[in-house]
Amino acid sequence: MTQPLLEARDLVKRYGGVEALRGASFTVHPGEVVALIGDNGAGKSTLVKCLSGVEQPDSGQILVDGEPVSLDSPSAARGHGIETAYQDLAVAPDLDPAANLFLGREIRKPGLLGKLGMLDKAAMRTEAREQFAKFGVSLPDLSVPIGALSGGQRQSVAVARSVAWANRLVFLDEPTAALGVVQRERVLDVVRRVRDTGIAVVLISHNMPEVLSVADRVEVLRLGSRVARFKAAEAQLEDLVGAMTGALAQEDAD
Ligand SMILES: Nc1ncnc2c1ncn2[C@@H]1O[C@H](COP(=O)(O)OP(=O)(O)O)[C@@H](O)[C@H]1O
Ligand SMILES: [Mg+2]
Q: Which domains does the chain have, with CATH numbers?
């Protein structure tokens, strides 16, 4: 096996009296799609927050390329090429898709106009068109506010936004939870395209058929710890459900 790109070892995270992570471990190799699954409250979002610099674990180790790192802010994680799209769709409904893609990283006009805060909308639109094409996000019109698009299109933009800036790994926390079947397929196509560009994807999902159709591997969290790992090609639906519910125990390898 290759050296993991990102690894969590024995992470503990407490919120007051609640132990959200109780010695959780997690591994992502370069270029793979890993599904992170578990029941509600298993600690999935907390783990993603710790691995993307949003929260700091109380104890445990995080390694990038085998070296211990401290991800004390989202920008520290970004510095390692790690981006995150959160569960609640973080798009600005009044802005167009290009402006959403560049939210917080706007391109300014060259020279004085840029120093005065003037944005280079043409440059952003050109770059946005390329990024959307690269990830197979098809939008009818790049100039309408994103609030006027369908849920699936909005979510594809949200995913593309994280992916466009990630150069090694992107976390997608339940990107398809609020979507219908057709829209969900579209987002999954984006995930596959991202993987094809060599960027690793960690997909959190409740949808087991979806997990098995898109992931290379599956890691299962239960009550704040990793309880099982599977190769998606070798796993059955019952294995995943059994591990999530605790009916099927599999010793953690580490
Ligand atoms: N900010 C917080 N404050 C208090 N408790 C939290 C907070 N975030 C998560 N928790 C608790 O930690 C546990 C794990 O939550 P979470 O990571 O959101 O699980 P999942 O994403 O798997 O549903 C739950 O019991 C949840 O209520
Ligand atoms: Mg969650």
A: 6-94+154-245 (3.40.50.300)
